[in-house]
């Protein structure tokens, strides 16, 4: 007998009745169940048959559905009622579990719910209440452009859509990897190996720039390295769509209420509300290279007050990488706002000083050699990318990468020490 | 396990018992325990367990035709 006829025109009342008798029957010893159903259904033959059929199915079901579709490997609290999309179907995708959550959006692991079921994706959805008209408009514009990016080192945008309550979501290639800084330290990559990996990152960013897409939010948790050692850039252009004022001082105040963000990779023009161009990505890449080489970020952000952070980013003269390695003052808040897959920037709690010995060992060298290696050309290259004025940086990511190539090839580099010393009093 | 068939059966189940369908989604696709599912849906664990039993039986029959 087919189940379709039985269920398709079933009323909620009938189902409630079935449920009631089914549960009561299960509460009795097996040999009394049949008699109980007979009596409880009081001559309703169809009802009796349906309950008996379900009880038989229950007997046979055994371990059916008891092993979850995807083994659960994460730890954590179940999510808040109503907010969670876990288990739900969005377009062609079935949401499996939450990967990370921020004030603006939440990232889920999902799988395609059709014949290629095993393909895993990252599904990034805007949180309830965050889907303003402006974001929806940008979302529509952005999807077309992003879908055109096709590069081996950029996580692909696969799809997009909206939830039942109108919240937009992006479906992206799911990348299993770790933040580039963490990867380099764990693998104890030497300075030269780090530079080669960084060049691959530059090539991917350059490709996007040629397609007129600026990342705007380059940071280690958005640059994952796979077990094969290939860097993959996440969230290209999404920062602009989901978070138009992501890093500007004005919005820091608002963002801080939800969750403290780390503007450490933002350029001075970004925090000053100026025009954001490809030069801003050059700057963020400069911050990343600084950290890859020295184990420190260029600034000591001593305050989480927006105005103060703004002042530090736009006015502080930066320490040379070759001297920064000796620093013992690190406070490194995890960077957060829009969460990235699969983990936010997970580093050891960096409250303690990162001794130069540790930093050198992670770079497969000694403190003395490290200092020697960074001094001169690498100092100049990094600081050229990090100049406050966009026009005085490398003109493109490509030029930045070419200068690194010159260094690696042992040829003279273009970057020179900045003679136009930045003065703190400049804006006063 | 034919996940596509399960997906379709779940959609049919949701037509007359959305709560049961949701419990299966969280338990099977989300990997949540009875207790966790109860906390997400704000139900008692006993209720989740009862609903889960019937949902499993109904889906088993829908997928195998046995019962």
Structure summarized in a few sentences:
The complex is a heterodimer of chains A (428) and B (67). Chain A has 428 residues and is an alpha+beta fold. Chain A is 42% helix and 11% strand.
The percentage of residues in β strands of chain B lies in under 5%
Number of domains of chain A: 3
Instruction: Give the radius of gyration of chain B.
Output: 11 Å
Structural class of chain B: mainly alpha
**Oligomer classification:** heterodimer
User: What's the CATH C level of the largest domain in chain A?
Assistant: Mainly Alpha
User: Could you name the CATH class of chain B?
Assistant: Mainly Alpha
Which word captures the global form of chain B?
Answer: globular
Looking at this structure, what is the CATH superfamily of chain B? Winged helix-like DNA-binding domain superfamily/Winged helix DNA-binding domain
Specify the structural class of chain A. Answer: alpha+beta
Question: For this structure, what is the CATH homologous superfamily of the largest domain in chain A?
Answer: Transferase(Phosphotransferase) domain 1
The portion of residues assigned to helices of chain A is 40-55%
Name the CATH architecture of the largest domain in chain A: Orthogonal Bundle
CATH architecture of chain B: Orthogonal Bundle
Number of strands of chain A: 9
How far apart the termini of chain A lie comes to 85 Å
CATH-defined topology of the largest domain in chain A: Transferase(Phosphotransferase), domain 1
């Amino acid at each position: 007998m087919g189940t379709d006829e039985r269920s398709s025109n079933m009323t909620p009342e009938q189902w409630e009745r079935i449920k009631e008798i089914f549960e009561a029957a299960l509460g009795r010893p097996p040999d009394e169940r049949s008699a109980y159903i007979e009596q409880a259904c009081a001559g309703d033959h169809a009802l009796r048959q349906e309950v008996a059929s379900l009880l038989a199915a229950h007997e046979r079901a055994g371990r059916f559905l008891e092993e979850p579709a995807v083994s659960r490997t994460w730890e954590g609290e179940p999510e808040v009622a109503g907010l969670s999309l876990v288990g739900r179907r969005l377009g062609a995708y079935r949401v499996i579990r939450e990967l990370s959550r921020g004030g603006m959006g939440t990232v889920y692991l999902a799988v395609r719910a059709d014949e290629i079921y095993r393909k895993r994706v990252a599904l990034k959805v805007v949180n309830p209440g965050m889907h303003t008209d402006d974001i929806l408009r940008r979302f529509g514009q952005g999807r077309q452009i992003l879908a055109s990016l096709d590069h081996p080192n950029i996580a692909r945008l696969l799809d997009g859509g909206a939830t039942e309550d109108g919240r937009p979501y992006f479906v992206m290639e799911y990348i299993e990897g770790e933040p580039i800084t963490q990867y380099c330290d764990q693998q104890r990559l030497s300075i030269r190996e780090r530079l080669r990996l960084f060049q691959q990152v530059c090539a991917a960013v350059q490709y996007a720039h040629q397609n007129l897409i600026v990342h705007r939010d380059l940071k280690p948790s958005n640059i994952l390295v796979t077990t094969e050692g290939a860097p993959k850039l996440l969230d290209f252009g999404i920062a602009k769509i989901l978070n138009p004022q992501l890093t500007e001082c004005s919005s820091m105040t608002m963002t801080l209420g939800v969750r403290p963000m780390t503007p450490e990779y933002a350029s001075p023009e970004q925090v000053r509300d100026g025009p954001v161009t490809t030069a801003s990505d050059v700057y963020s890449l400069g911050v990343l290279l600084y950290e890859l080489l020295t184990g420190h970020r260029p600034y000591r952000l001593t305050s989480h007050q927006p105005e103060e952070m703004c002042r530090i980013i736009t006015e502080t003269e930066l320490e040379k990488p070759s001297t920064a390695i000796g620093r013992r003052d690190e406070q490194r808040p995890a960077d957060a706002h829009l969460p990235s897959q699969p983990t936010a920037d997970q580093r050891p709690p960096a409250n303690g000083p990162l001794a130069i010995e540790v930093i050198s060992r992670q770079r497969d060298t000694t403190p003395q050699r490290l200092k020697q290696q960074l001094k001169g050309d690498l100092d100049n290259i990094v600081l050229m990318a990090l100049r406050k004025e966009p026009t005085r940086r490398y003109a493109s990511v490509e030029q930045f990468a070419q200068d690194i190539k010159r260094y690696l090839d042992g040829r003279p580099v273009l970057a020179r020490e900045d003679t136009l010393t930045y003065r703190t009093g400049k804006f006063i | 396990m034919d996940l596509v068939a399960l997906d379709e059966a779940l959609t049919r189940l949701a037509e007359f018992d959305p709560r049961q369908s949701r419990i299966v989604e969280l338990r099977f696709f989300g990997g949540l325990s009875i207790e966790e599912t109860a906390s997400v849906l704000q139900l008692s664990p006993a209720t989740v367990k009862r609903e889960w039993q019937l949902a499993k039986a109904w889906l088993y029959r829908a997928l195998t035709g046995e019962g």
